Amino acid sequence: MPRNFKRVLVLSDLHAGHVNGIAPQGWNVSGRGADYRAEMIAVLMIDIDNLRPFDAVIFNGDLTDGPGKDPGEHVSDQVLIAMQFMVDVIGKQKRPPACFATAGTPFHTTVKGINLEHLAVQHAAAQTGVPVLYKNQHMININGRTIHCRHHIGNGQLINMPPSLPRQKLTNMLLAERGMQPIANVFIRSHVHRFLHCADATANFIITPALQGSTDYGALRCDSVIDVGFLWLDIFDDGEVLCRKQLYRPKALAMEVSAL
Ligand SMILES: [Fe+2]
Ligand SMILES: [Fe+2]
Fold first, then answer.
1. Most buried of the four, 1, 56, 64, 116, by CB within 10 Å?
2. How far, in Å, from the CA of 106 to the mean position of ligand 2?
3. Ligand 1 center to residue 195 CA distance, Å?
């Protein structure tokens, strides 16, 4: 039976190449983070496959991570790891999805001036034959609704907390007034590794969860929580937008307690 909606998969913050980043099946190596990577990829691919087919897939930044900035936290071959994960996600469908990737945080994605994230995207597109548009931000119209996605969320008043999302709408309206952008109805942001979804009468504001687990920096420096998982949108023929999420509590991330 034909669907009366279009389905959009939104994946973000894979940080492939980090010990607690995502590694596709067959690409996990032993050592630090192997438990997390094995646990996550097993459930993630089942959940993604159960939701197929996707009409569009958005990779909203931080596809790759490292190497070398944080000794001990990186595994090698992050371009190949990210590429293979993308291939597993976008290369399986009889009717391939429209694919979009947004540029992530240069600290994670760019090494010695080379954008490894972009390389992974180009390789995945070549491998699958599915074009992947890579830009700083995208506007995507589906069933009369416009999605605006960007990795970064802008400055907030609270450290490592989602800032006011309606500000994104105000910026969009100011740019629309100047003829620079259409009015958007779905704002997707990432980067803070924390899920949030709210809506007003005309727009949905979404911050994606991350697919990366905890980091040394986070454990040492951040009094904050992260949400691990992904989300998808069903955009119905009448323009109704449904945002659904799949969050995980990976056992491998649970803190060990020392007992005397
Ligand atoms: Fe990230
Ligand atoms: Fe980021």
1. 64
2. 8
3. 12
Tell me the CA–centroid distance for residue 212 and ligand 1, in Å: 7
Cβ contacts of 224 within 8 Å, gap of 6 or more: 160, 161, 194, 218
In tens, the pLDDT along 120-131 reads: 999 999 999 999
Q: Which residues contact 118 (CB under 8 A, 6 or more apart)?
A: 103, 109, 134
**Where are the domains positioned within the chain?**
5-253
pLDDT digit string, tens, across residues 233-246:
999 999 999 999 99
pLDDT of res. 69: 60
Residue type, 88: D
Q: Which ligand is nearest to the CA of 102?
A: 2
How many angstroms separate the alpha carbon of residue 4 from the centre of ligand 2? Answer: 34
The closest ligand to the CA of 16 turns out to be 1
* SS3 state at 27: coil
Burial 14-40 (b: 16+ CB within 10 A, else e): bbbbbbbbbbbeebbeeeebeebbebb
pLDDT at 71: 66
Tokens of 180: 């620079």
Average pLDDT, the chain: 91
